[in-house]
Amino acid sequence: MPWYASELEPMLAVAAATLNEDSTLIEANAGFRRLVKVEGQQPIGMHMSRFFVQPDFATLVRGQAGADGEVYRGLLTMGDYMGRTQSLRARVWRVDGRLRVLAEHDIEQLERLSDVVLALNRDYADAQLVLAQINLKLQQREAQMIALSMTDALTGLGNRRRLEQALVQEVSRVERAGGKLCAVMADLDHFKRINDVYGHEAGDKVLAAVGDLLRRQTRPTDIVARFGGEEFVILMPHTDLTHAIGAAERVRMALGANPVHPLPAPITASFGVAELMAGEHSDVLMRRVDEALYRAKQLGRNRTVAA
User: Fold this and answer.
1) Predicted confidence (pLDDT) per residue in 14-66, tens digit
2) What is 6-148's CATH topology?
3) CA 111, 115, 117, 119 torsion: positive or negative?
4) Residue range(s) in the chain whose domain bears CATH number 3.30.70.270
5) Which DSSP helix (H) or strand (E) runs through 183?
6) d(CA 185, CA 306)
7) Contact, 202 vs 194, CB < 8 A?
8) Alpha-carbon span 13 to 131, nearest angstrom
9) 183 forms bridges with which residues in the sheet?
10) CATH fourth-level superfamily of 160-306
11) CA-based nearest residue to 224, from 212, 213, 234
12) What residues are annotated to the active site?
């Protein structure tokens, strides 16, 4: 996915591109492709050094002594295959060893893009820098929106969508590289009674407290999600069944030691644990861990049962 906003892709007023240090063109919008005008060929994958007139491409590569950051800001003269040149105001910076170029053809159209598409203030003096800043903000906003769409609002844990995404990733990792993967499913005992006796507000406080406890009792590499209602799932990469059972027991004991107001006594939970078997799909793993949880309830609740 290009570093520049998708709205820039068809724009001819702004040239945006990414190049390797050997001048190979990796990605470019319509404005940059028009600038180099490679007749009858797609410029992606071609060497672009001959199109950089002043400063030349080698000078740009040497900028910042090869370190990431801005390597050039000012007039950039570019030539096409017919020998015609254009001078544009430009900014060039290096990210992860690649050069990013942002140059303007038309100040007025660039300002309209800032106003209409990116909702920027027309009074910014440095339009190129503003575009880079806004693009970063858009990326951050998109990341926040994605994170929110995968977060349970009440507990702050991942939601079912986050769990399903992590399951696909982790099962694929095990298939590709080997290793272990375990799932722990927890169900709060007699939760309906809490809602009936103390009200749904108290029930929400219990769920939020359990979410906080699960965050504190699990590792940064574990994926913790609210599966639905009063059910929670902990996905534990690089963990065998024995260690997963131990982790479930620690959570169970911690629940019993931390009463939640206004409940007079600590809550308890039943736990099912399962380890991914060779060639097993994620849905089979989740079915087995659910069956283990069901057996824990049948055996009297407040216990851990392994599949």
Assistant:
1) 899 999 999 999 999 988 988 888 766 788 999 999 999 999 999 999 988 88
2) Beta-Lactamase (3.30.450)
3) positive
4) 160-306
5) strand 181-188
6) 10
7) yes
8) 13
9) 235, 274
10) Reverse transcriptase/Diguanylate cyclase domain (3.30.70.270)
11) 234
12) 230
